[in-house]
Amino acid sequence: IHREVIVLQEKQREEKIKRWFDMWLTGERQELSRLFDKNVYYSESWGPEYHGIAQLEHWFDDWTQQGKVEQWKIQAFYHQNQNTVVEWNFRCTFAGKVQQFDGVTIVDWSSDEKIFSLREFGSVSAHTLPYGV
Questions:
Q1: What was the pLDDT predicted at 125?
Q2: Nearest of 52, 109, 120, 56 to residue 84 by alpha carbon
Q3: Percentage of the chain lying above the pLDDT 90 cut
Q4: CA 14, 123, 40: angle at the middle one, nearest 5?
Q5: What is the mean pLDDT of residues 43-69?
Q6: At residue 124, does pLDDT exceed 90?
Q7: 76 Cβ partners below 8 Å, 6+ apart?
């Protein structure tokens, strides 16, 4: 029975992360406060950090006025205790410029199953083979 509870918890966490990614595709953030802890820490792959739900909302509103997420495709989820790691591919247009990269997100969950910390790490999507196959 214990394993069944863990699997259910992991599926619920995956659904919450999928809803977060979907918010970027739709530009709608109504569920944000249901997914994130009020004291959330969020670190983007290229450096900016947001502390607390108010800053997260401000960033989301500012970004979606200038940009459009066209794809945020989840490749895999990995779970361990209070952490979930998500591997993904992302494409957007921001200020008229198309950007695409691969990434990993590390999510730390609060005791009430909200996102307490989220750290993103990115990599260019176009990979090369400098020494051949």
A1: 84
A2: 109
A3: 89
A4: 45
A5: 96
A6: no
A7: 86, 87
- Asked whether the beta carbons of 85 and 78 are under 8 A apart, the reply is yes
Place of tokens 């983007």: 44
List Cβ<8 Å contacts ≥24 apart for 110-113: 110/37, 112/37, 113/9, 113/12, 113/13, 113/16
Query: What is the C-alpha separation between 5 and 98, in angstroms, rounded?
Result: 42
- How is residue 45 annotated by DSSP? T
**pLDDT above 90 (res 126):** no
pLDDT single digits (tens) 58-89: 999 999 999 999 999 999 999 999 999 999 99
> Helix or strand or coil: residue 32?
helix
The tokens of 108 are what? 């730390």
Strands 36-43 vs 83-94: parallel, antiparallel or unpaired: unpaired
